[in-house]
Amino acid sequence: MKLRPALPLDAPRLAFIEAAQPMSAHWGEKGLAGEIGNASACVWCWEENGAVLGFLSLRLAAGFCEILNLAVLPEACRRGIGFRLLSRALADVRERGGERVTLEVNVNNRAAISLYSKAGLKEIGRREKFYGGKDDALIMGADL
Ligand SMILES: CC(C)(COP(=O)(O)OP(=O)(O)OC[C@H]1O[C@@H](n2cnc3c(N)ncnc32)[C@H](O)[C@@H]1OP(=O)(O)O)[C@@H](O)C(=O)NCCC(=O)NCCS
User: How far is the centre of ligand 1, averaged over its atoms, from the C-alpha of 73 (Å)?
Assistant: First the structure.
């Protein structure tokens, strides 16, 4: 098993994971390929026996990191992959001088909120009816 930066050829596999997880952001293969090739972005993926099981995407600029996408294949959930992706990504951001991390998460997404809380992020705000004009977004953040 391997936690590594995503490569352009991973884009179709990441799109497959995102399509299997309705609560993830849906960028599609083209959007993911663009993100992997973007210098201010960082996309990490978790690979096991040649299969990519999860990924996390963030942007870092002027010391501020924003987690933009995170998904683990449903059959690989609850095995610690999401937490390891997040921990590694935040450690890397810290090493690169990042001082603060923020993200938005659907208020009904218990699994993700619990994961982010476990990693030390706290609720710092709320955007009403942010998702599809219906569900609120929690804004979560932490100093690094
Ligand atoms: C959120 C997600 C990435 C978690 O990935 P995962 O690999 O299953 O997470 P882990 O196994 O590392 O679990 C870490 C912590 O997350 C929380 N968690 C994960 N799944 C959970 C669930 N179904 N219910 C409640 N808490 C959950 C727990 O706090 C867990 O810690 P614990 O194992 O000590 O209880 C995964 O459920 C997913 O892909 N969800 C759909 C996409 C999504 O919501 N992305 C985030 C958008 S903001």
Answer: 11
Cα–Cα distance between 3 and 79 in angstroms, integer?
14
Q: What is the pLDDT of residues 89-138, one digit of tens each?
A: 999 999 999 999 999 999 999 999 999 999 999 999 999 999 989 999 99
Q: How many CB atoms lie within 10 A of CB 108?
A: 13
- Name which of 43, 44, 42, 45 is nearest 61 in CA terms: 42
Ligand 1 centroid from CA 116, angstroms:
9
Could you state, in order of their start, the residue ranges of all structural domains in the chain?
2-143
Ligand 1 atom 47 nearest Cα: 24
2-143 maps to CATH 3.60.110.10: no
Q: Full-prediction pTM beyond 0.85?
A: yes
DSSP strand pairing (122-131 vs 135-143) = antiparallel
